[in-house]
Amino acid sequence: MGIYVNPGNQSFKQAVNSPIYVDKSPLIHYINGILNTQRKNMCVSRPRRFGKSMAADMLVAYYSKGCDSSSLFAGKQATEAVSFATHLNQHNVIRFDVQQFLFHESHLNIFINKIQDMIIEELREEFGDCFKADEYGLPGVLKQIYTRTGEGFVFIIDEWDCVFRLAKEQEGVQKNYLDFLRGLFKGAEYVELAYMTGILPIKKYGEHSALNLFDEYSVTDPKNLSEYFGFTEKETREQCAEHGVDFTEIKKWYDGYQLEDSHIYNPKSVVDVLTWKKFKSYWTGTETYEALKVYIERNFDGLREAVIQMLAGGQCQIDPTTFQNDMTTFHTKDDVLTLLLHLGYLTYDERTGRVFIPNQEISQEFMRAIKVGGWGNLMEVLNRSEELLKSTWDMDAEAVAAGVAEARKDMSSILSYNNENSLACALYAAYSSAQAYYMKPIRELPSGRGFADVVYLPLRNTDRPALLIELKWNQSAKSAIQQIKDKQYADWIKDYTGDILLVAINYDKKTDSHECVIEKYVGGMGNRTIHFGHGKPMRNKQWVK
Q1: Are 504 and 480 in contact (CB under 8 A)?
Q2: What pLDDT is recorded for position 79?
Q3: Contact 62/69 with Cβ under 8 angstroms?
Q4: How many distinct helices (H) and strands (E) make up the chain?
Q5: All domains of the chain, ordered by start, with CATH?
Q6: For 403, which of 44, 89, 184, 388 could close a Cys bridge (C-beta 3.0–4.6 Å)?
């Protein structure tokens, strides 16, 4: 048993013996299926503290010849698979954590040689004198061992990407590292499995991966590994029941990461709140908000608007394919938002191509970042939001117009207020408190014969009206209300049985003023009753003039 070659199972044993342990061993069945196949090279990227290292420790304990892990896996789900016994502790494993060789920037020029030297030294102890160290380094040694013994290797590499996080601006160091990995794995018969984990996917140059021999399992394309990194909703609910913690509150604080059809919870945060019984930000305590602050202050058109929209519970369309998978190459706001996605500050709905802030824990981190950034009086706008929302429910159109105008004024240093999109951005901030009562706001909801600008649908068991908002620029609030009627925007939510408020807001650039009209559409299927202010109701989808 060595440190790097055929290591033991102590790390996995500590995980299994912990008070809170969630069985992720079915991952073993999937990996056994790609062992010694053309799909044997895989790179799993997830945010920090999402269980990547624990999964790596589990695979070491399972495959390594350096230990006997039969008792550790007793009763685990993986033992039900036919392939489990075939590979249990039957493989040569080479495991290393790149970060352990890079705990200081001065190591960047020597870490590759150190990795090779340490592994070759242990290979000598394991395989004796069946190889000679030469100019080809570790790949040359492994090829000799395979040729003379017929024995291959399972490689498990943790924190593979820390080079790109530590040597952000040093392209030469990055290139040498990628060349090392390419030489180690490309076309190598001695490789039975290459399993790498990190925060970032594999570096790209243009449209192409620098290591195109690897299959990527990322937050934007998890393939079929969604449930193995992070806690699923079912697992979280079970742990809450066992430890006596309110699942509803945990869902509000820590739910929201979407991977395919799965809702994933940050395991670090869930374990800590189950242990300490206090709801607060745990995962973000492992990172500094300064990192978030640096990226959201990038000067890209539309980035601040996107952040404001997401702070208010909205979503932002992005194209993650242009991101180069590093910490420095940014051409658009989409590249910055994609980095934040991989870092865990955002989550991604693959079906819609939209990103959003996943939960209250992360929302607090954004709030901390903008408090010390150049974000004008945004915090004041957010703090006044509850008052504006109550004015909307009271159908006080003058107060709503004044509230939106005040929000626009306070955000003038952030937004270039020159179109409907800027008006929508100010609106999102002004209505940020709606998150307590409504689902995430929907932008351009397909309704009737057109698109409503913004729609807020109430949370289940919340006695609040739906809000259907139409925005106009240099027109009139009256024309906005008429458009809602003519294009039957309310038809999309016709099955919603509660009240619906129709809110029209116009900004007149010439007079630098806002106006608002609010009408009430009383819900229910079949005939509906519509009110304008306190006017006389009419039926059969007629509108009070």
Answers
A1: yes
A2: 97
A3: yes
A4: 20, 19
A5: 10-228 (3.40.50), 231-280 (no CATH), 286-371 (1.10.10), 378-531 (no CATH)
A6: 388
